[in-house]
Queue: 3 jobs
Job 1
Amino acid sequence: MAQRRRKARASTASAFTYSQWDGTQVGFELKADDLFGEMTDDLLYHGDLNAAIRRMMQDGFENDEGQRMQGMREMLEELRKRRQEQLDNHNLGGIYDDIAQELREVLDTEREALQELLDLAGVTDDADAARKAQNGQIELDMMPPDLGGQMKGLQNYDFTSDAARQQFDDLVEKLREQLMQNYVDQMSGAMADMSPQDMSRMKDMMAALNDMLEKHQRGEETDFDGFMEEFGDFFPENPRNIEELLEAMARRMAAMQQMLNSMSPEQRQQMQELSDMLLDDMDLRWQADQLAENLRGMFPGMGWDQSYDFGGADPLDFAQAAQMFRDLGDLDQLENVMRGARNPGALAEVDIDRARELLGDEAGESLERMAEISKMLEDAGYLQRKEGRYELTARAIRKIGQNALGDLFRKLSTDKLGRHTMEQSGVGHERAYDTKPYEFGDPFNLHIERTVRNAVTRGGGGTPVRLTPDDFEVERTEKSVRSSTVLMLDLSLSMPMRDNFLPAKKVAMALHSLISTQYPRDFMGVVTFAAVAHEIKPEELPEVSWDYDYGTNMQHGFQLARRMLARQSGTKQIIMITDGEPTAHLTPSGAPYFNYPPSPQTIDLTMKEVIRCTRDDIRINTFMLDATAYLTDFIEKITKLNGGRAFFTTNQDIGDFVLVDFVENRRKLITGR
């Protein structure tokens, strides 16, 4: 027996089951890059990685092949429909309809036998037989109308018909088995048919469980392993601890209580009477009632008081009703898990096979894939878990920038921006990965492969290969010019209100990616500004969001950008992306002051910072989104004073303007024209 129990426990050690591919399963290939790309816009817009993951879980995902992972909203709606279908199509009257029908058949059989006896007594003039038949008919007529009363009355009735007696005995045995099975289902999901010995073991199990539960509630040490060694075959779920065991049992017992709650008062009374009459094992009843009371106290949120309103025409018998309430309970549990899942890892506890049974293959497949999302992104190096939350890795930040840069470059036409050919070569530090014939005075960075190829071409095949100065070919180098850039990004509330925030943030990410990959010696800083300005690291850009405080404080932004560039070398510039005129400045106390329309003091203080930037040889290039007449006039004054450039653009082509201008400017620095 112990070996059989250990085998049962070992066979159910995993919460998931796997089967060989048979061609019918729905395949859905998730790729980490696709998943990360799907959530990038949401992440950039709201600046919250964990919220972006949750929204992707809610909305679902479609891969490049058109295969779709259902989102939580869709699955919860399907769950609601499945539950409502059950309630709309069925009713609980069938629990007793079948019993009543079989009882009527028993009574009809007995009445026929009594009538035959009465007829025979009339022929044979048998007064005793006639009296017996008449008494039997009277006794049947006086039977209580309720099922419990009829069952109890027939138990003490002296049947005339052996066939009726057999029918009644069969009905009693069937009902006893069904009611007993209900207790079995509440106590154990492992045994379908129980022998008397099994029933005795179940009572022992329940007594031991109640004892262990009471010790657990008192905080005393319990022998869970010893309990499972002796009674583990009752629990195919293979609970790992007493908490998991009690939760599984509480769920079963709560489902049965919900069925009772959903019955009419008359139906509940009949159930009670049938149970009292048929289940004469009061020790089992007492243990079950005690366990239910204890579990209800431990798991008050399991829905013990919940009921369902059935409105259908299809009656359910007792076994069907019990199964339906188990299904409804599992639907409720699945709904609670799904609604409470704050990240994909929380779905690992879902029984996927059960979810497939309840919601269908597509939903089951989607839940299984959804539970893998965070692990896939972690394995791909995009996410890392810290203090219970996910954070972006350095690789993820690079990926966002590369994607943004790639999107913008693909949008540009090749004649507007491309890989510009160098027009000037000379001595420098950066390899250009191009070669030229050696000339006197060139650094002797000999390109061996092309030099040997020139010699072979000139002298023909064979060895040894003889080199002459005319064969020498050397690597070109670029002039090394350093550029320092600070991007000023407007985070005022008007940016998201006018749909400018996400395009502007993508440009910031793309510019960071361009500088860090193509011009690694260059410097890039970032200043965000709204009511006040903040210096941030470019790596923090993905999780930057807009500011709900009113104000566009260019004065503070220019001040921080100028201080950052003072610590840098090379050519210096500020790239400012904004959609509003300056409406805020810092007071002498350091507090922000806001006014709309812009106050003269705000304009004056902002222009003073522009003058300071100009004196420090910092160029200010401004990219205006949704420019008003006032903003246009103000930026033109900045441009005239500073010598920078102004671009009037929209959120559709802001990236074109910023990247084209930056690359063209960078090329001019290198070529000198």
Job 2
Amino acid sequence: MNIKSKLTWLDPRLSLPCLLPAAVFLAASLTPSLLPRPMLVQAVLSGLSFAVGYGLGAGWIALWRYLGLPAFGGRLARASGIVAAVICVSLVVVSLWHAVHWQNSLREIMGMEELPEFQPLLLVPVAVATFLLLLAVARVFRWLSVRASRGLARYVPRRVSIVVAVTVTAMLFWFSINGLLFGFLLRVADRSFQELDARIDDDLPRPTLASQTGSPESLVDWRDLGNQGRSFISGCPSAAELEEFFGTPVLAPVRVYVGLNSADSPAERARMALDELKRAGGFERSVLLLVTPTGTGWVDPAGQDPVEYLHRGDIATVTVQYSYLNSPLALMTQAQYGAETARALFQEVYGHWRSLPPESRPRLYLNGLSLGSHLSDLSFDLYDIIDDPFHGALWSGPPFRHQTWQEATARRDPGTPPWLPEFRKGAVVRFMKQDGVTGGKDNPWGNFRILFLQYPSDPITFFSPASAWRAPDWMDEPRGKDVSPSLRWFPVVTMLQLAIDMAVGTAPEGFGHTIAATDYIEAWLALTEPPGWDEAGLAKLRAFLEAREELDK
């Protein structure tokens, strides 16, 4: 047996037996997952799923041949090929027929516009192109492996040459894709995001009040805040706006932001943030909020504005930027740097806060959305605060890597679902979705509080690599009301679906990873218990924030 035949498991040529699992994977990819998918995204996912199914089929055939099991031939092979072809075509046609219905059933749950019936016809060419691209990569991999194995066979046994050739080729591919191509794309993305961050909008004038970050009296230069920092500072409600809403004079909130260009290191930026916070009178407010932003430095206005209104402006917020990249890229490339920044800021702010007299210092809370919540969780050590803890944390849209979230969900009280668990009867940690906070009905919430605001349809929270080989427990009944009843688990494909949802999925406000301002109101209300609010006042605040969001769209 020659070397080439030894490598038949790498042969990317199409075969009917391999097309059968490929068609099954393609059909499974068209079923609904957590978020609706545009047809272009669905097409790429289907092509990828088809390629994975084909590869698994090729691997099974290779194992069969490697074990020396008898091969089918003659009439039996032709008959099985015809049956496989009929099954493949039937699966593809039926799944394409139902694709729009599956997607629209999920869109109906989320109140989105339905897809037109003809869009699946656009899916096939893109899916085929995706598959052919991956097939071309497989051909190059096979060619390199064969060449390397033939050269090594002169010096080592054939089986050894095959293993070494495939291993070396795989390492070469990994280095080329991860080290060169991916690195190049990251550098391009970093430059693009940096240029976007440096852009100064003409409609965002430099602050004039001395207490504002970026003003002439500020320790932080307006130009160094970056685009996200300038938007955050400019979006702060003024005393006049708050007075118009409440009908009485109130303080304007304090917002402190330090951009990446403001100093050279996380430690220096953290010290600058503390100095600016003290200069602006942040420690003289009743509530102090330490926010860890998302990857780009963005702080969600839907979460920030409600807490400032709930506390009638008697609140200060401080945050420091750690990246230009969006959260998925920052998580892959700069997560350690983000954690270092979050720890540095916490140590500076918490260190000064605990030095103040307990009776006169503000209540201190942590906050973060998505990657920001993960890094906020990493910003402190429990043993460092146990003798003088801060007051609590609101972590919204926690990613699946969030350590405290993982532990509380895994060790939840029996009988509670993973998408809305109860942990130790809600004594410290509680969870919330669209319908409010769970847990603690018969158990008071202590002085130290952690609240997770999450939606059952959020793939960033509920993604798991293990979904490739087992069904996640959040798919069990009962499910969250925003999770499609048509969602089914398929090996490998479900993991690919959730990965696509996590990377490029979008959802309307109140679903997926888009947290609604009205849900933030309930979260901040439960966590911080601001005084002086009745149901009429809360209804007015909800209507006000909803109307403003409509204007911003």
Job 3
Amino acid sequence: MLKKKGVSSMIGYVLLVSFILLLAVLVYFLLKTYANPVEELKCPDETSIVVKSYQCDSTKLNLTLKNDGNFDLGGYFILATTSPNQEIATLDLSRNITSSISKLSPRGVKFGEVEGSDNSLNPNKEEKDIYDLTGLEPIYSIEITPLRWQEENNQKLLVACTDAKIKKVLNCTGTFGCVDECTIPGARECLGNGFRTCVNDYDGDSCYEWNAVIPCLPTETCSGGICMPQTGNIYYLATWGNDFTGDGSITNPWYNLTKAWTVVEAGDTVYLREGTYFYDRQVLSDKSGSEDNLILISAYPGENPIITKSSSYTPSTWPTALIYIRNSDYLHVKGLEITGFIPTNLDQWSGIYAYDSQYDIFEQLNIYDCGKGMTLHNVNQFNIINCDFHDIQNVYPGNSLVPEGLEFYSDSEDNLNAINYVDGCRFWWNAGKGISSYSYKGRLVINNSWSFYNGYTPGTFDNSLKSSGMGFSLGGTNTNDPGTIARVVTNCLAFRNRGWGFSENGDTYNMQIYNNIAYKNGLAGTAGGFDFNTAGVFYYISNNIAYDNSGNNYVLNVLTNVNHNSWDSSPVVTVDNNDFVSIVESQLLNPRNSDGSLPDIDFLHLVSNSDLINRGVDIGLPYSGSAPDLGPFETNY
């Protein structure tokens, strides 16, 4: 016989199970009637979302998402973890969003600020949202699941694209200060003894990347976003200054560089204030800085000093130059505009002529309307960074000297071991060549530079000059070791030059020519894109594009190390206008970025479906995808 207590317990269990079953049924029907995302339905293949960039600290998360798939998106789930040991994200951040007026039920964020059930984020478009993290534990990672509205049985349902879910580990320990600046690629901010630069950050690791080319000098500190001298004296020049009554202070400045040169020592700075300086020949000779204490000659931050010749300028001793630097090492010349140095005799008139010097930096120079832009003679370890050389010509009757934008020259066998660098420079409308090393015996490394419209009367395509008009003229000496790689040219562009875009110009030593493009060059005879035709020389030529050059796209001799270019790719590729985002050439003349770097353009950048993407070979340069792209502009598709 059962005890009453046993019967009572059994009835209790039955009632409990019945209640649970009833609750489950109610929940089931509630979820069916609630606009809950339907995970049983699948989103189309190639539905995708990425975290393009983020900035965060303990109180705020700024998030930029990009639709990098092929289908429109309607919104997303965002869950977070607070520890690297937490495998499943459970913290729902959608309730903390502050930038969107439209939420999704039961949880989620809708793309766009317009109510409705459309898929509003189209492919390649971006969404920026802000989350308030106040009071939350520090965020370690986030998981993003994109959402789509899709039709099912004549009903529009919200589908979670679980196959496209992404996870991003965050670093919220101090990068937030760059949020506003990073909307403008190229904006700079001081960090320690160097600059960090705001960039379009597709990886989202940080809103900054280090600028390895133009850091603050070891003797400088950051002040208000400007690198200022840490040690040494500061002297000032101004257009109203006076070399006799001035003392070189900011309130009582001098006028001439040569005056400041009489007093500067290693670690000192000379600032030129705004305005036009009408100079006689300025000779800066026999005085040097040191590796840790350069002598800086610079535009005053935020101002534009212009140097031109005075009406009394009379050529006397060699060389004819507006600024002549001789036997002076460890200089840094920055931010000067040099113009109006037009020849009045048969000499070669250079805006700057540097001779027998080492370890000098020339940065953000703008040299134009001179007989020659800049001549570097018997120099070593020079860095020419983010400079423009243009509108160079010899107008004096009978003057046959080649009016080049930038020339490297050496007349001594002692210079075989010299090495010099050019980075981020432009050369255009130079009546001769853009950049030339015809009689230079050392090594030259050119990166990320553009040479175009050379070989003509500046501002026209007048062909009467009969100039060789090469964009990059890379040779001309027969004295170097044939086994030495003496020219390295990477990520450069040659466009619409009268002669060859890139030419070895009779050299007999090896060169590396990687990831360049030659487009519409070669008005002169059979000239065109790439000319590396000296017998017996083993050129290393890969990942280049030659397209629509008037003469020959390429003329090559030894092909042993020539591969993975647009003309010899396997499988075969074709090049036409459809491969490029833009062929609007005027972009080449856009103003430089605020840090002096080349302007952001899409001229000759590859479109996402170009067969030139991932067709190169790894030669040591950074790339994304399965292999390097052809040409100088690596894609992030």
